[in-house]
Design brief:
The complex is a heterodimer.
Chain A (H helix, E strand, L loop, with lengths): L2 H36 L6 H22 L8 H22 L8 H23 L15 E5 L2 E4 H23 L1 H11 L1 H6 L4 H23 L9 H16 L4 H21 L2 H18 L12
Helix pairs in contact in A: 1-5, 1-8, 1-9, 1-10, 2-3, 2-8, 2-9, 3-8, 5-6, 5-8, 6-8, 9-10, 10-11
Chain B lengths: L6 H24 L27 E4 L6 E4 L15 H4 L10 E8 L6 H20 L7 E8 L4 H14 L5 E3 L3 H14 L3 E3 L12 E3 L4 H16 L3 E7 L2 H17 L3 E8 L7 H10 L3 E5 L2 H13 L8 E4 L4 H7 L1 H4 L3 E4 L8 H14 L7 H20 L4 H7 L4 E2 L7 E3 L5 E2 L3 E5 L5 E6 L14
Parallel strand pairs in B: 3-4, 3-5, 5-6, 6-7, 8-9, 8-10, 10-11, 11-12
Antiparallel strand pairs in B: 1-2, 12-16, 13-14, 14-15, 16-17
Helix pairs in contact in B: 3-13, 4-5, 6-7, 9-10, 13-14
The chains are: A mainly alpha, B alpha/beta.
Chain lengths: 304, 464
């Protein structure tokens, strides 16, 4: 093998690692917000991703049937719609279910798990029990070839771009907007926030809806790399929790660092060992680290 | 930059994280032994080879429901009268049979993970039963169906199987899909002396008096396709990749033996991705590094979709790589997307596009019953065969008694099979052909190769 080929392989493998990193991060962002800010363990997070994916599928079907000419452009509005639909469903779920369980954080785990089962069966019964596939625009298919021997997946580039956009958006929203101030204030001290005139119920609803909306975005992006079926969400949920918990539940930097280290470890080990061994070693390492630091990589210091 | 957390969150987080990672580790180590993506069956023009023109399918109505169903070409309304086979004689073991009807069970998952795959089998079994009823039933008796939901949960399958056999006294059960569900119900069927018709292609290494396997066992699916790719494409180096559970592992073991000992080729890599794995970037790079002549794949479920989408995205397409899979039927293509698969090869015994009169009639009848958009995969066709094989055996035996039906089964031929023609082997598997389909962008397959009838061999010597 020539040095040129080795160089290409290193470049492609490097991109594979980065690509996995952005996928993990995109999955985890919504959950980090909900788990970190509200203490709600949302087991239905994967199903909110599935909602986003189904919205893209719906757009794809509509485009195919009514406006085949728009195949190259439908995807972007579909992704935006995925955010709002998932956020709207999240809003309703917060009002009907989550709100009643804030005093019992572990019960939310059971309740949202039940919700995830119900949502899966809903997809199965009312949408399609089989896996479906959105027809992707031409510009998302295939590989981008910077040199003849390097192929960079276009869908990977897309997911990467979207992740950067969303991360920056979340950062600005949380730290630079009045909404962010209210959310953080409520997290720190609910009673006091309420006393100074923040409508904490409204903040909760907004936060939960935001987290779900980002999950929807992630789901929409994943139609380019994975499957859309009633149980697709469950393929992602465990990885998602792993990233959030390992990073330190409430910390955006932690989430990013955790996604990055898990992704790099996973993809490198997978290249040199087998997929199963890669998973075993990654998880063992995480378990050991969490035994030493149960609070995760990064901890936010707050007064208790 | 920090998002803030409450103490509550952190405390819960620590414990929860250990739980999560522990569970994942467990899953990664143990693997899970169940789902198999739906795959192949073959349509067989052989049966249609007779020079006589085959009559077109006829629309008939069922006495019981009045609903109409298209019946297979060449079939005539049965002239057998129930009175010729009095219940006291035709059934001596307490099964639910009377002078007008016989009750059977359908046992599949209609909820849970596996509902995706098992729905097609349920539809095919119901179609076959409706057709048999419209043609006068079995021994003059109409078939009634009790359907139970295994809910993608193996203990539930066992419990429902017991219910069907012990409480409902059904004469036969059509059902199960994953090997795990079949293994779960097997002791029940053997203890209660029931009769199960199992539709899925599977890893072999099993044979029971109480089960008939209407899908192909591993050697029927693998050997002929490897021979084909070796001869047709001159393939010498193979990269094997599958999901990590019993079916792909057994299949790849057989494939490796065949490649090394018979084809004198080389296996340049063998990889098993955890079930549910959705990230194939590193693995695809590894394959690129080895440049195999053929990628031989048995990835299932949601992973299958991710695998093919990412292959395409990484620039691995039919234009530069031969890929042969044993886990993709028309059902899977819906999720994978035809454009990601176009030009790759699939080895099955049935494809919806098979060009023979049996299959045309079958596809037409299936679509009439279940909707124009229905897609028919290999296992769906195999499910369809079960009821017909049972009918033929019962009528040959003149009895519904399980022992007599089992005894009458070997060498039963189904000439209306959509795959063309099948024959029951004394080892309870079917003689069928293997076919290679080339995937087209529209989600259908073009049949490019068809083997002779292959003898089922669930315990292949030299391959274990």
């Amino acid at each position: 093998m020539s040095s040129n080929e080795i160089g290409s392989m290193i470049a492609m493998q490097g991109f594979a690692g980065l690509s996995l990193f952005t996928v993990l991060l995109l999955m985890a962002l919504g959950l980090a917000i909900i788990f970190g800010q509200m203490g709600v363990i949302n087991m239905a997070h994967g199903e909110f991703m599935a909602i986003g994916a189904y919205v893209v599928y719906l757009f794809s079907q509509l485009t195919q049937n009514f406006a085949p000419g728009l195949r190259d452009v439908y995807f972007v509005p579909a992704v935006v719609a995925a955010f709002f639909v998932a956020a709207a469903v999240g809003y309703v779920v917060e009002v009907l279910l989550i709100r009643r369980l804030y005093k019992r954080p572990l019960d939310t785990l059971l309740a949202t798990w039940g919700l995830s089962l119900a949502m899966q069966q809903f997809f199965r019964t009312f949408i399609n029990p089989k896996e479906v596939s959105a027809e992707l625009p031409e510009w998302l298919l295939g590989a981008f070839n910077p040199t003849p021997t390097i192929q960079v997946p276009r869908n990977g580039i897309f997911v990467m771009g979207l992740t950067i956009l969303v991360s920056v958006g979340v950062y600005l929203l949380m730290l630079k907007s009045r909404w962010g101030v209210r959310i953080r204030a409520t997290t720190q001290n609910r009673v006091m926030s309420s006393a100074v005139g923040i409508n904490t119920d409204r903040v909760d609803r907004f936060t939960f809806a935001l987290g779900c909306g980002i999950a929807g975005l992630a789901g929409a992006a994943f139609t380019t790399i994975g499957s859309t079926g009633p149980t697709s969400g469950s393929l992602y949920i465990v990885d998602t929790f792993l990233v959030v918990v390992f990073g330190g539940a409430a910390n955006l930097i932690g989430t990013i660092a955790s996604a990055f280290s898990i992704a790099q470890a996973q993809s490198l080990l997978e290249f040199f060992l087998t997929s199963a061994m890669a998973k075993v070693l990654t998880l063992l390492t995480i378990i050991v680290i969490l035994m030493i630091r149960p609070q995760g990589l990064f901890v936010t210091k707050v007064r208790s | 930059m920090q998002l803030l957390s409450s103490n509550r969150t952190r405390a819960a987080g620590g414990a929860f994280s250990l739980l999560v990672s522990g569970t994942m580790l467990w899953a990664a180590v143990v693997g899970s032994g169940c789902s198999k993506s739906s795959a192949a069956a073959s349509g067989d023009p052989a049966a249609a080879k007779s020079d006589k023109a085959v009559p077109a399918s006829t629309e008939r109505s069922t006495e019981a429901t009045g609903a109409t169903v298209l019946t297979p070409p060449g079939t005539e309304k049965s002239t057998i009268k129930a009175a010729d086979y009095p219940t006291a004689k035709a059934m001596t073991t307490g099964l639910k049979v009377d002078d007008d009807s016989v009750t059977v069970g359908i046992l599949h998952s209609t909820t849970g993970t596996m509902a995706i795959s098992e729905t097609g089998s349920v539809q095919a079994e119901k179609l076959a039963i409706a057709q048999i009823n419209a043609l006068g039933g079995i021994l003059g008796r109409q078939i009634k169906v009790i359907q139970e939901d295994g809910a993608s949960d193996w203990p539930t399958f066992a419990e429902k199987a017991r219910k069907l056999l012990v409480n409902d006294k059904v004469a036969a059960v059509f059902g199960c899909w994953t090997s795990a569900s079949r293994k779960a119900v097997l002791p029940v069927f053997e203890k209660e002396n029931g009769l199960l018709y199992y539709p899925t292609f599977y890893e072999g290494l099993e044979q029971s008096k109480n089960v008939f396997y209407t899908g192909q066992e591993a050697t029927q699916q693998i050997l002929a396709s490897l021979d084909w790719v070796n001869k047709e494409k001159g393939a010498k180096t193979f990269y094997l990749i599958g999901s990590d559970y019993i079916w792909p592992r057994t299949s790849m073991k057989i494939a490796r033996k065949h490649i090394e000992n018979v084809l004198h080729g080389t296996v340049v890599g063998e990889e098993f991705a955890p079930l549910g794995n959705t990230q194939f970037g590193s693995l695809i790079n590894k394959i690129k590094l080895k440049k195999p002549d053929v990628i031989f794949a048995a990835v299932v479920g949601g992973s299958n979709v991710a695998w093919f989408k990412q292959l395409n995205a990484a620039g691995v397409t039919a234009a530069n790589q031969t890929l042969l899979t044993i886990s993709v039927t028309e059902d899977e293509v819906l999720g994978i997307g035809g454009e990601n698969l176009a030009g790759f090869y699939s080895s099955m015994k049935y494809f919806q596009s098979l060009d023979n009169p049996n299959n045309k009639a079958f596809v037409e009848a299936f679509k009439k019953m279940w909707g124009e958009k229905s897609v028919i995969g290999d296992v769906t066709q195999a499910g369809y065969l079960g009821a017909w094989i049972w009918k033929a055996a019962v009528e040959k035996a003149g009895s519904f008694d399980v022992d007599k039906v089992v005894e009458a089964s070997p060498n039963i031929e189904i000439k209306i099979a959509p795959e063309g023609y099948v024959k029951v082997h004394p080892n309870h598997h079917l003689w069928s052909k293997a076919r290679i389909g080339k995937a087209k962008a529209d989600g259908q397959f073009e049949v490019v190769h068809e083997s002779d009838l292959i003898e089922p061999n669930p315990f292949p010597k030299g391959y274990q």
